Amino acid sequence: MKTLKEAYKDYFDIGATVNVGSYKSFGNLIAEQFDSITCENEMKYGFVCNTKDEYDFSRADELYNFALDNGLKIRGHNFVWHQCTPVDHLDTFSPEKLWERIKEHIKLVSDRYQKVSCWDVINEAADDKNGLFLRDTVWHRKFGDDYYMKIYALARELVPENIQLVYNDYNEYIPEKREKMLRIVNDLKAEGLIDAVGFQSHITIPKYFSLDEYKRTFEEFSKTGLRIHITELDIALPPINTKKTFSDVTAEEREAWAKLYGNVFAVFREYAELIDSVTFWGVSDDTSWLNNAFDGHGRDALLFDRDHQPNEAYFRVTEF
Ligand code: G3I
After folding, report:
1. Cα(20)–Cα(39) distance, rounded to whole angstroms?
2. Which ligand 1 atom sits nearest the alpha carbon of residue 41?
3. pTM for this structure?
4. Residue ranges around ligand 1 (CB below 6 Å)
5. What is the number of alpha carbons within 13 Å of residue 205 lying toward its C-beta?
6. Does the active-site annotation cover 179?
7. Considering 20, 78, 175, 184, which has the largest number of Cβ atoms within 10 A of its Cβ?
8. pLDDT in tens, 126-164
């Protein structure tokens, strides 16, 4: 049986999100299968910094050291996001004070983790609603409509130049969202403030996903000249708009799900020249965020089952 990183060694890095629980319980599997990790939460603003602006890096340090000790790359996720951020606290700041705060934050975190391969500088800036460009966030409210230009310029100044700056977002395969993401990255690219775009690739409702639109996304972004990172891949089984749990799915539904995983990786191989890394949002189904998100029904989504064994989708992905 080929490991994921063996199967894709001539294509791109294979990564997975890890947290302080998963690396302790199956660190060997992670080191054996993947080239790279992302901290699921541990480097986010709200995890390293409290509402008194005090820092605790212990959990992020643990995962950073796990990566370095095992020869794994590590992606930086993330500096600026509307979630996992003490928004009520930061909303009391003047724009000037918030600017000093985010400057200090980026400098502290970036200086501490100088061996990350990249930083997701802003996560999910584009709004999901039709007709609205940017999401309403504390950063947008305080710094204005060009806030993303300002924050990436700051990151360019503070982050060592060998570390890629990335814009990361989801639903990149839905045309209207894709247009907003393109607008953001083209603005940044014009000023030399970005190196790569992150396609989260959460496929939670397959009926909103099509391989043709996904391919169009690669085509459109290839014109920007930026590198592409697949940052948070998972395919929910059953989809999130059903009331079923993973134990209710039929053999046909499982087969269609595994086949979709295989087809998605065929797209990655087709566009491999553009792609630096493909990262799964988790390693095994017992630790996936989908167990706690949406309606709370259990789901499968990854290539390793609840006993940490490879499932049928694993073989669709590694045998081609
Ligand atoms: O660690 C605390 C724990 O101390 C506390 O007792 C518990 C009570 O609620 O909460 C724990 O924190 C939770 C954390 O996950 C760790 O389990 C947070 O409440 C919960 O909000 C957090 O959810 C994470 C979410 O981002 C928000 O940060 C998910 O694990 C994580 O998978 C998810 O990841 C995001 C990406 O960063 C961006 N793209 C979407 C993706 C999925 O939502």
Report:
1. 9
2. 28
3. 0.97
4. 40-41, 44, 83-84, 123, 200, 232, 289
5. 10
6. no
7. 78
8. 999 999 999 999 999 999 999 999 999 999 999 999 999
